[in-house]
Design a protein that fits this description.
The complex is a heterodimer.
Chain A lengths: L3 E10 L2 E11 L4 E5 L6 H9 L6 E6 L2 E5 L2 E2 L7 E4 L11 H5 L7 H13 L15 H13 L5 E5 L7 H17 L3 E6 L2 H7 L2 E6 L2 E2 L5 H6 L4 H7 L3 E7 L5 E2 L11 E7 L4 E5 L6 E8 L3 E7 L5 E7 L9 E6 L5 E3 L2
Parallel strand pairs in A: 3-9, 3-10, 7-8, 8-9
Antiparallel strand pairs in A: 1-2, 1-4, 4-5, 5-6, 10-11, 12-13, 12-14, 14-20, 15-19, 16-17, 16-19, 17-18
Helix pairs in contact in A: 3-4
Chain B lengths: L6 H9 L2 H34 L5 H7 L8 H11 L6 H26 L2 H9 L4 H30 L2 H5 L5 H10 L4 H27 L12 E3 L4 H31 L5 H35 L3 H11 L6 H15 L7 H25 L3 H9 L4 H29 L3 H6 L7 H10 L3 H23 L6 H4 L2 E3 L1
Parallel strand pairs in B: 1-2
The chains are: A alpha+beta, B mainly alpha.
Chain lengths: 339, 482
C-alpha cells in the first residue's frame, strides 16, 4: 500500500478555478476524509486523483510514482485505483461475481479472489444475482468488493453513503471502515456529511474554495478548527462576539465582567460546551426556546445584551421556557480576530 | 443540386410560374389542415383516454399508436378500393390527419397522465369546476407538446407522396415526381424539390423551437385524476371508435376481403420474392444507417466536442428530407458521378440510410446516454482502456436499444415509396412499388395482397417498436376525481 502526495494541484473548468494549488498528504493505510460543502471542488479532487480530470498544474504521486505532472497524465486504467462513485455504479448487465471480477484477468486465481472478496463484504451467497436484485446496501458492498478485488494502490470513495437511508448508513460506515482497515487500504473519501467524516476517518481534511485548509484527527479539527468556516463545517458552532485584552484574556457576553477595550473578534463555542444551571440570583440568561431531540435537547438562551446562544443538555430537560439560568462556558477558547 | 444547372434565373422562373404557386399553396394548405386535424383528433383522444371514465379505454390506449405503423398510402389505397372516384384535397387531408393523429395523441396523453393530481385537487379547492381544471390547469401544460406533435404531422403531410398521388392532389411531392418522370423537365423538378426542402426545414425549425420551450418541471408523483362524465361517456366512446374504424378497421377489412377475392389467383412465389426484395434493401439501408450512427452517437454521447454536436445536428436534420427530394438528388448524383452504383440496390439502400438515419441516431444516442458516465469511469479505474470499456460495458448495455433502432429503420424503410420508385433498378420491384403500380392502373383487387403483405411484415413489428410505455402501470393506477 502506498501513500498519496498531492502538491500545488490546480484544476480549472474554463474560467472557473475549481482546485487552487491544493496540497494534501494521505498517509499509507490511513483513511482520510475530505469534508466540504457541495461545489467546493472535492469531487474534482477525487476525479483528478483517479485520472478523469487533467490538472492544469501541480503533481499527484502514489508513493514515489508520479501519476500526474502538469501536462503528463497516467491514464486512469494504469493507475490501479479503486473507485467507488455515488450509488456504486454497478454494471447492470453483469452478475455480482462478474462485477467483482471485472478488473481481474480471467483465471483460477481470479475466481478465488472473487470468493475472497464476496466473503469479505458478506455476500458469498449472492454471487449470481444481478444488481437490480440487490438492496441499496448490498449494491454498495458489491461496489466496494469490485474496487478492492484488483488490490488497488488507493481507494477513492465519492460521497459513498449519501444515497442510503440514515440507519443503513450508520451500519455500513462501521463495516466499510472495518474492511478498509482489514485490507490495510489507503483511502480517500470525500463527503459533505460531517458526521460521516468524523466517524470514519483517521484524518479529516476540511476543504474550502479549492484548497485543503486543515489536516488533523477528528478531535483536532473539531476542537481546534483553523477558522470559523471549518468550525461550522465540522459541527454545530455558536459565533459569539468577543473582546481580547492586551493580557490575552478573552471576554464574551457570557463573562461576568467586560473589559474597557481590546481586540474585537469572534469566539466559537460548541453548544455542548455551555453549562446551564437554574438560578434566581446569579442568572445571566433567559430560556427563550427549547428544541427537544429525545436523547438531548438544545436550549436557546437570550443574554442581557440580547446575544443569542444555545446549550446542548442531555435529557431529561430540567428547564422550561422563560426560566432564568446561569450559563457558563466550559470548553477551549477559540478566538478569531475580526478581519 | 440539380436546380443550379440552368442558373438562378431559370430557378426563379420556375418558381414564379402559376403552377408552382398553386402547388405551393396546395401543399401549405394541406399541411396546415392536416396539422389542425391531427391536433383536434390527437388532443381529443388523449383527453378522452387520459381524463374521462370512457369504457374500454385501456384497450383503446394500447391501439392508439397503431396508425403510425400503417403507411398512409395503404389507407388511401383501401379507400380507393371502396370508391375509385375519391380524389382531391379534403379526402387527402382526412387520411393524413387520421394517419398522423398519434404524433399529437402520444405526447399529449403522456403529459396529461404526468400532471400531478395535487395540482388538480388544489384547483378544485380553489373553486374551479372540472371543465375549468381542463382549460386552466391541464391544457396550458400540455399544449406545447401538442403543437409540437401537430408540426410533425404537418411535416409528414409535406413529404408524403403515396397518399396525395393516389388522390391525384398536386402537392410538391406529386408534381416533382410527375416532372421527374416526364424526363424533359428534371431541373424543374429539382427547383421544386429545393423549395419543398426549404419549407420542410422551416417546419422542423418551428418544431425545435416549440420543443425548446416545453415545460420540463412536471413532477411524477400521483398522476392526475379521472373525471366521471356520466352518459357522455358513450358519446366519447363512439367518437374514438369512429376514428379507429376509419384508420384501422376499414383498411384492414378492405385488405383482407380484397385479398380473399383474388383468392386462388394469388401468385405466392411472386409475393414471396417481392417480400424478400423489400426486406433485402431495407436490411442494407438499416445497416448502413446504423454503421454511420454508432460512431457519431458515441462521439456525441461520450466526447463533448463542437464537431461532434455539429455532425449530430446535421444528421438529425435529415428527418426533414422528403423521400422525393432524396430520390431526386441521388438520381442526379448517381447518374453523373457514381455510374457503377446507379441502378443498383446499393444506391437505394443508401437513400434509405440517408432518409432514416435520424431515427437510428436518435435511438443509438438515447441508449448510450442512459448509460451513466460513472460506469465508464469505474471500468477505466479497473484497468480497462476506452476500447475495452466500449466492448465490455457500453456495447452490451446499449445493444438492445441500438438493435431496436436498427429494427425501426428496417421496418420504416420497407414502407418507403417515392425514393424507391425513383431509385430502384429497372425490373426490381418491392411490395410498395407493386402496390403503387397496381393501384395506379386501378387494379385494386390485384394490389390487395401486396398491401396486406406490406402491412404484415412492416407494420406489425413496427407497432411493437413504436408502442410507448403508455400501457405501463402508471396508466392503470388511476385516481378517481368526482
Amino acid at each position: 500500500m502506498t501513500d498519496i502526495k498531492i502538491d500545488g494541484l490546480s484544476v480549472s473548468f474554463g474560467e472557473a478555478k475549481v482546485l487552487d494549488e491544493l496540497s494534501l498528504f494521505v498517509p499509507s493505510q490511513s483513511l482520510v476524509a475530505v469534508l466540504g460543502p457541495s461545489g467546493c471542488g472535492k469531487s474534482t479532487l477525487l476525479r483528478a486523483i483517479a485520472g478523469f480530470v487533467a490538472p492544469k498544474s501541480g503533481t499527484i504521486r502514489f508513493g514515489t510514482t508520479l501519476m500526474s505532472v502538469s501536462s503528463v497524465q497516467v491514464p486512469p486504467e494504469r493507475r490501479n485505483v479503486g473507485y467507488v462513485p455515488q450509488e456504486g455504479a454497478l454494471f447492470p448487465h453483469l452478475t455480482v461475481r462478474k462485477n467483482v471480477g471485472f478488473g481481474l484477468a480471467r483465471s483460477k486465481t481470479s475466481e478465488k479472489r472473487i470468493d475472497e472478496m464476496l466473503k469479505l463484504v458478506g455476500l458469498s451467497e449472492l454471487g449470481d444475482r444481478f444488481p437490480h436484485q440487490l438492496s441499496g446496501g448490498q449494491q454498495f458492498r458489491v461496489a466496494i468488493a469490485r474496487a478492492l478485488a484488483p488490490a488497488p494502490n488507493v481507494m477513492l470513495l465519492d460521497e459513498p453513503f449519501s444515497a442510503l437511508d440514515a440507519q443503513l448508513r450508520e451500519e455500513l460506515r462501521q463495516e466499510i471502515k472495518r474492511i478498509l482497515k482489514e485490507t490495510k487500504t489507503t483511502t480517500l473519501l470525500v463527503t459533505h456529511d460531517r458526521e460521516e467524516a468524523l466517524v470514519m476517518a483517521d484524518l479529516v481534511a476540511p476543504m474550502k474554495n479549492g484548497k485543503i485548509v486543515q489536516l488533523g484527527t477528528p478531535e483536532e479539527v473539531y476542537n481546534n478548527p483553523v477558522g470559523i468556516e471549518t468550525a461550522v463545517s465540522t459541527g454545530d458552532a455558536l459565533m459569539v462576539p468577543a473582546i481580547k485584552t492586551k493580557s490575552g484574556r478573552v471576554y464574551t457576553p457570557l463573562s461576568s465582567t467586560q473589559p474597557a477595550s481590546g481586540q474585537l473578534g469572534t469566539v466559537i463555542i460548541r453548544p455542548e460546551e455551555i453549562e446551564i444551571t437554574l438560578s434566581k440570583t446569579k442568572a445571566n440568561a433567559k430560556v427563550s426556546e427549547i428544541e427537544y431531540f429525545g436523547h438531548d435537547a438544545l436550549i436557546h438562551l437570550e443574554l442581557p445584551d440580547s446575544t443569542k446562544v444555545s446549550a446542548r443538555v442531555t435529557a431529561p430537560v430540567a428547564v422550561k421556557i422563560g426560566d432564568r439560568v446561569t450559563a457558563k462556558q466550559t470548553g477551549p477558547v477559540r478566538f478569531f480576530n475580526k478581519d | 443540386m440539380r436546380a443550379s444547372e440552368n442558373g438562378w434565373e431559370a430557378f426563379f422562373n420556375i418558381l414564379s410560374r402559376p403552377r408552382t404557386i398553386n402547388t405551393l399553396i396546395t401543399s401549405l394548405a394541406l399541411s396546415l389542415v392536416v396539422a389542425a386535424g391531427s391536433l383536434f383528433l390527437g388532443v381529443s383522444i388523449a383527453l378522452i383516454l387520459g381524463k374521462t371514465n370512457t369504457p374500454l379505454r385501456r384497450l383503446l390506449l394500447i391501439l392508439m399508436p397503431l396508425p403510425l405503423a400503417i403507411p398512409s398510402y395503404v389507407i388511401a389505397y383501401s379507400y380507393l378500393a371502396i370508391n375509385p372516384f375519391l380524389n382531391g384535397f379534403w379526402i387527402s387531408a382526412l387520411i393524413l390527419s387520421l394517419a398522423t393523429f398519434p404524433f399529437v395523441a402520444i405526447p399529449t396523453y403522456a403529459l396529461i397522465r404526468r400532471i400531478n393530481l395535487n395540482q388538480e385537487e388544489v384547483a378544485r379547492t380553489l373553486g374551479l369546476s372540472p371543465l375549468s381544471v381542463l382549460t386552466k390547469i391541464i391544457w396550458p401544460q400540455v399544449r406545447v407538446a401538442s403543437f409540437a406533435g401537430a408540426l410533425l404531422s404537418a411535416l409528414y403531410a409535406l413529404s408524403e407522396f403515396g397518399t396525395v398521388a393516389f388522390m391525384r392532389l398536386d402537392t410538391f411531392t406529386r408534381v416533382i415526381y410527375t416532372m421527374y418522370r416526364a424526363t424533359f423537365d428534371r431541373s424543374g423538378a429539382a427547383s421544386l424539390g429545393l423549395m419543398l426542402l426549404m419549407v420542410s426545414l422551416f417546419v422542423v425549425f418551428l418544431e425545435k423551437r416549440f420543443r425548446g420551450t416545453a415545460n420540463p418541471s412536471i413532477t411524477i408523483s400521483r398522476s392526475g385524476g379521472i373525471f366521471k362524465i356520466g352518459l357522455w361517456k358513450y358519446l366519447t366512446l363512439s367518437f374514438v371508435l369512429t376514428i379507429y374504424f376509419l384508420t384501422l378497421v376499414l383498411p384492414a377489412y378492405v385488405l383482407i376481403t380484397r385479398t380473399l377475392q383474388v383468392g386462388t389467383n394469388i401468385n405466392f412465389s411472386n409475393i414471396f420474392s417481392l417480400t424478400l426484395n423489400t426486406a433485402l434493401v431495407a436490411f442494407l439501408g438499416a445497416t448502413i444507417a446504423l454503421l454511420l450512427a454508432i460512431p457519431v452517437g458515441v462521439l456525441g454521447a461520450r466526447f463533448n466536442s463542437k464537431f461532434a454536436s455539429l455532425l449530430e445536428k446535421s444528421l438529425l436534420i435529415t428527418h426533414a428530407l422528403p423521400g422525393v427530394v432524396v430520390g431526386l438528388a441521388l438520381v442526379a448524383l448517381g447518374a453523373r458521378y457514381l455510374p457503377s452504383l446507379y441502378q443498383t440496390i446499393y444506391l437505394l439502400a443508401f437513400a434509405y440510410a440517408l432518409l432514416f438515419i435520424a431515427n437510428s441516431l436518435g435511438t443509438v444516442r438515447s441508449s448510450l446516454e442512459k448509460i451513466p458516465l460513472k460506469l465508464d469511469e469505474v471500468s477505466r479505474s479497473l484497468g480497462q482502456t476506452f476500447g475495452q470499456t466500449f466492448k465490455r460495458v457500453i456495447l452490451p448495455i446499449a445493444s438492445p436499444g441500438i438493435l431496436s433502432g436498427w429494427l425501426l429503420v428496417f421496418v420504416t424503410a420497407m414502407k418507403e415509396l417515392p425514393a424507391t420508385l425513383m431509385l430502384k433498378p429497372t425490373g426490381f420491384e418491392t411490395l410498395s412499388t407493386s402496390l403503387w403500380t397496381a393501384t395506379s392502373i386501378s387494379q385494386f383487387a390485384e394490389a390487395a395482397p401486396f398491401a396486406l403483405a406490406l402491412v404484415l411484415i412492416a407494420s406489425v413489428p413496427s407497432y411493437f417498436l413504436n408502442r410507448p410505455n403508455l400501457a405501463e402501470k402508471d396508466a392503470m393506477r388511476e385516481n378517481t376525481l368526482i
